[in-house]
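Project standup — Tuesday

K.O.: blocked on the structure for the chain from last sprint. Re-posting the sequence here as requested.
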Amino acid sequence: VARKLPEIKFIIIGVSSEIHEFIKKDKPENLIVHEYIENSRLVDYMAASKVYCQFSLSEGLPNVLCEAMLCECIPVGSDVNGIPDGIGTNGFILKERDVNQATELVKKALMSDAALGKKARQHIIDNYSHEKREESLYKLLDL
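H.V.: unblocked you, prediction finished:
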């Protein structure tokens, strides 16, 4: 996606050193890769970003997706497990592993009004607060 949108800066955070080395071999100039960032600095990256991408192949409901949405990032995520529920109607869902579709969804997110980011934040507050998750767990365990 970064290669198809060279005018946009992309940042990948949290990859293994092996993956980092692999990416460095053919990395576009607009892509920055960090193996590790302290949690306290992650919020700074999210707050400075308009879009957050979660292109996982397998995932529950990622905490980092919720954190990005709380920072009013517009989410673009893959159609696996908890990601579509987490995003709801407040972002964009990648239906298949296709770089062209991913690129189009990132473009749509970038062109979206900031109100969508605010909606994403409210969606997480309303549906995935600590209290809501605890309540759901108790219901699931029938306590």
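K.O.: great, moving the ticket to review. The two ends are 45 Å apart (CA to CA). The longest strand covers residues 74-78.
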